[in-house]
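Hi P.,

Sorry for the delay on this. The queue was packed all week, but I finally got your sequence through. Input first:
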Amino acid sequence: MAQLDQKYDDLIKDVLENGTDSGDRTGTGTRFVFGRQVRFDVDLGAFPIITEKHIVWNSVLTELVWFVQGGTNIEYLNENDVHIWDEWANENGEVGPVYGYQWRNWNGEGIDQLQGAIDTINENPNSRRIMVTAWNPAQIDRMGLPPCHFQYQFRSEPTPEGEPQKLHVLVSQRSCDLFLGTPFNWSSYATLLAVVAEVTGHKPGEVIWQGGDVHLYQNHFKQAKKVLELPHKEAPKLEVEEINDIDNFYKSNVNLVGYDSGPFVKAPIAC
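Then the structure:
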């Protein structure tokens, strides 16, 4: 069965049973726990994606490609039938210097953090400085939505001689919308790890996700409890074609095979 479903269920139960009710920026209200960690292997033969409810894979993959391209305009997303950023775009479709902009052009200064991380993995795999951050205080006020998952760090792990080294990623997320955003983010970073591992000649290892404010919105309680009643299904496979340059990463390079999920459980977005 899909490895993530039980971890997801456990985190939902943790918030519902142990969380504290709080006000929030949107006025909706949340129940939250502070400081949690989830770890999962990125096994391409049993890819980590929630199966008990449906995760829209096209949205996960399209957004990730947009991030890697350094995108700031939702035109590419909309052309691929993805509208998850529409709420935060201006009349020209711009969302400001979010995520991918900072990954590929930090602070508008031409600093390509993602390519730099890949170069370091290749040239100095034992480095403890292989990090990419999207949190830029100098440009927060220009962002349609400040980054929720704000930083990630890669680590190459030596393996027995003759086997590809493993590549792990540690993801830090300040604000975690547990019903809508978090499972989406988990699969996005699992895909990013698989792609960067391919580019650098590694085997994908583990995603270690750490969440700060892990919350359920008050108007998501009913949906979250419904998910807890849904069965877990077999995990799909992820096929990644040969990619030797991160700038050659396109949607066509990655294919999710055999994704059999439960129903799409709709919930309102808190803006």
